[in-house]
Every structure is written in C-alpha cells, then in structure tokens.
C-alpha cells in the first residue's frame, strides 16, 4: 500500500492543519506571548503587591 504524503499515522492531514493555523493567526492575530513585555508585567505585578500591602497596613491601622 502506498503511503499518503502529508498525513500522520492517525490520518491527520498536516498540510491542512498548517493552513488552518495560518488562517486562525490572521483572524485572531499573532500569539499573545509574542506581544507580552515580560519586564512590564513584572513591574505591574510588583506595583500591585505593593498596593495590596499598603492597603492592608492602612486597614490594620484604622481597625486599632
């Protein structure tokens, strides 16, 4: 039996999957991770933590 090209052993057409992925990227844009600035996210997370600590300290002082 002749092996069909571009198909996996389970019968998936690899070329069709590539085309579907390309179409999805056009529809939804590029990967989110490629647009993420890791340093900026870390800075924002640190700021959020600092804000939570400040709010907690202020709340504790008001409750005394």
Automatic annotation (TrEMBL):
Pfam families: SASP_gamma (PF04259). Signal peptide: none annotated. The keyword DNA-binding does not apply. Keywords: Repeat, Sporulation. Belongs to the gamma-type SASP family. The keyword Cell membrane does not apply. InterPro entries: Spore_gamma. It comes from Jeotgalibacillus campisalis. Residues 1-64 are annotated as: Disordered. Residues 1-12 have a biased composition (Polar residues). Residues 13-27, 44-64 have a biased composition (Low complexity). NCBIfam families: SASP_gamma. This is Small, acid-soluble spore protein gamma-type. The lineage of its organism: Bacteria, Bacillati, Bacillota, Bacilli, Bacillales. One of its GO terms (biological process) is sporulation resulting in formation of a cellular spore.
């Amino acid at each position: 039996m002749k092996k069909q090209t571009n198909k996996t052993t389970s019968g998936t057409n690899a070329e069709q999957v590539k085309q579907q992925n390309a179409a999805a990227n056009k529809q939804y844009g590029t990967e989110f991770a490629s647009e993420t600035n890791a340093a900026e996210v870390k800075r924002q997370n640190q700021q959020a933590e600092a804000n939570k600590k400040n709010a907690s300290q202020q709340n504790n002082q008001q409750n005394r």
